[in-house]
Amino acid sequence: MSELIRFSVAMPENLLVQFDSLVARRGLAKNRSEVIRDLVREALVDEEWDDPSQEIVGTLSIVFSHHAADLQGKLDQVQHAHHDKIISAMHVHLDAHNCLEVIVLRGKSEVVRGIADAILGVKGVKHGRLTATTTGLYL
């Protein structure tokens, strides 16, 4: 880890009270400085994700009914078409009708989002969300 630099931050008291509440919810190992570092890292990751040329890692979670006609085949078809960007996939049976699939993707932001959109657009997918982070080690 590089040298820590101290700086001060001014904010309205009511905002500081809310921030201290956030620090408390984050747990015993967190303090104001660590939570500020977390928030800065999060902002930097969001900025990288917005750049279509930056490499990211994402998890796409989808929920679907396994009774939907040929849905699993369509999902497999999209995943096979992008096998070089899909690192792993996990399939979970939630109940007698519904499944959860978590797909880990890695590639340029634009490509990962395109694959996620293709999967989310398959008829029969009930819900899904892509969560992404940077592959940058500098954070």
Q: What structural class should be given to the helix and strand makeup?
A: alpha+beta
SS elements, strand count: 4
Largest sheet: 4 strands, antiparallel
Overall, the morphology is elongated
Distance between the termini: 10 Å
Main-sheet strand order equals 2-3-1-4
Oligomeric form of this entry?
Answer: single chain
Which regions are unreliable across 5 or more consecutive residues at pLDDT < 50? none
The proportion of strand residues reads: 25-35%
Radius of gyration: 20 Å
Helix content: 25-40%
What's the pLDDT, averaged over the residues? 90
Q: Count of DSSP helices?
A: 4
H/E series: HHEHEEHE
Q: Could you characterize what this model shows?
A:
Helices cover 40% and strands 29% of the residues. The protein has 139 residues and is an alpha+beta fold. It has a 4-stranded antiparallel beta sheet. A hairpin with a 4-residue loop joins strand 2 and strand 3 (98-108). It is elongated and about 60 Å long. The mean pLDDT is 90.
